[in-house]
Amino acid sequence: MLWYMIFMLKHNILACVFLIIYTVVALGLSTTILSIENKSLRLTIRRLKMEKNNCDNKDNLVKFRLPDTVKPLLYDLYLYPDLKTGLFRGKVNISLEILKETESVSLHSKGLNIANVKVASQPGTFTIEKTYDLLNIKRKDNSKFIPGFDNVEIEFDGDMKNRIVGLYTSSYTTSSGEKRQIATSKFEPTFARQAYPCFDEPNLKAKYKVHLLKPKDSSYIALSNYPVENVTDYDNDHQLVTFDETVSMSTYLSCFIVSDFTHTETSFNNSGKVVPLKVFASPENLDKTRYAGEVGKKVIEYYVQYFQMPYPLPKLVTMNWWNDLWLNEGFASYIEYKGVLAAEPTWGMLEQFIITDLHPVLSLDAKLSSHPIVKHVVTPDQITEIFDIISYNKGASILRMLEATVGEEVFQNGVKNYLNRYAFGNAVTKDLLTELQLLVGNKFDVTEMMDTFTLQMGYPILDVAISGDTYTLTQKRFLKDPNASYNVNETKFKYRWSVPVTYVTNLGKSSEFILFKYNDNQVTIKKPAGATWLKFNTDQIGYYRVNYPLDEWKNIINNYTLFSTGDKTHLLEETFMIAEANQLSYTIPLELTKKLKRRNRLYTMECSCIQYKRHS
């Protein structure tokens, strides 16, 4: 089985001058009152916005979400793209199950012309109502659809031009100047509805039987999720390519392409079975596919071993709704580094993760404009907005922290059990955490720890106080703007976190983490006997910051060359960011940069350059 892996008039001037003078005087007389009132006003506005959003979301549930009365079972989908005109037409036969008595069958459709609708159970005339992105099929006699199995056939057509989502045309130019057209698709998150009428929500999975029209020219191919079953002549100029029936999957995972691409081929070991792996490209870029194939082979074989499942994964698990997008994309963003590490062990991929994924999101998440990873979304625009650095990078970063906290083997087994338990189904964040909790036992509350990072935006900074060999840690929310104000009661955790604290000394790494729970005022740690220095957050594995007394910072600087690459990049990035927040003198990060030598790895030098650029 093969899967194919692409925002004045003078009197007005006088009035402004008077207003400025008046404001300055007023501010001089009542700065404190205005400060309090402004803060109160900001909090009131924020609260009103939240209340409005709640009302809007309830209204949007009706406008954009599908009712729970019908579920699809199989899409028998015919698509006929015309590369010359940029138009397409199609037909879809949807086998479905009516779960509850209902006045209409509702599904998604956007930008499509609906030519004809048939319902197998009761042939007759139907009315079509379009509301926002919903297509509501009703009987003219107002009779209801009763529970049972049924089939809906819809004929439609649309435009592929001047767009980059749904089913669309793209092109490339050959070295001889010839422009070549292709048809391709992008359906994530809510764009499948622009290619064919469907139940375009991630929890409504169905099987697919796909038929694609392509030019009869032998240089053209058609690709979809599964291998080709057969090719038949359609007319004098076209062929119809039929693909094997797929497993149940969400609409956004379906994909189609008609192009004149060619390929190189290799194979990989799929739990003892040899499976072909093809990499496609335009003919002039074919030579670039060989390395991609070599890496792809190694990465897939690593994933087969890691998940202990054959590829393609027969146990496809998707989030129940887009609120939990981070679990899909965050996991993919993290595990991809492990895959490349398996293919190219000398590239230091886990060190690269710190600079390319962790550091950018730590900067963004230290602003009031951030948002929680788990965010309630309803409309297509709201859904698209959460495909951002928070879902991807923060998601990956807290999963990395979770893996280090529970242990790599426990994490791997928990993921494997999660995939098996929810095979072909949908899951939410809590489901994965429950699987991990079963393996962790009573050691700590996995869900509680992760909820503090997923249900509220931002992250903490741990302030260190030292008395002899005793280190006392307290926590607060870290913000780049030292004057930023917010309401701690916005979240149930009051912007406090359950932090898995790790540390490293000249004697080695701590064998266990210390959980600094969100409802604890402080936590104390004794420096091991014989240790001359102590640095918290080993290899920046945790999603938090640490600030030390000045003397301890100097001690760390003096021992900088002894740290691992991960700790070196951590200290460089962290000192600059804490200094930017006006909680540390810039002399500390600047002193650290003096410690850089030629023998330092590229990632450390890159981190230093990035910080200089950000703060210059």
Structural class: alpha+beta
Number of domains: 3
What CATH architecture of the largest domain would you give?
Sandwich
- Report how far the terminal alpha carbons are from each other: 52 Å
Helix content estimate? 25-40%
Q: Give the low-pLDDT segments.
A: 1-52
Kindly identify the CATH topology of the largest domain. Answer: Immunoglobulin-like
CATH superfamily of the largest domain: tricorn interacting facor f3 domain
- Largest sheet data: 7 strands, mixed
Query: Strand arrangement, largest sheet?
Result: 4-7-2-1-10-13-12
> How many beta-strand segments?
27
How much of the sequence is in beta strands?
25-35%
The whole-number mean of residue pLDDT values reads 88
Oligomer: single chain
Task: Please tell me about this protein's structure.
The chain is of the alpha+beta class. It has three domains: 70-260, tricorn interacting facor f3 domain (Immunoglobulin-like), CATH 2.60.40; 318-454, Neutral Protease, domain 2, CATH 1.10.390.10; 460-615, Immunoglobulin-like, CATH 2.60.40. Helices cover 35% and strands 26% of the residues. The protein contains 13 helices and 27 strands. A seven-stranded mixed sheet has the order 4-7-2-1-10-13-12, with no helix packed on it. A hairpin with a 4-residue loop joins strand 1 (70-82) and strand 2 (87-98). Helix 2 packs across helix 3, helix 6 crosses helix 7 (408-421) and helix 7 packs across helix 8 (429-440). It starts with 9 loop residues before the first helix and ends with a helix.
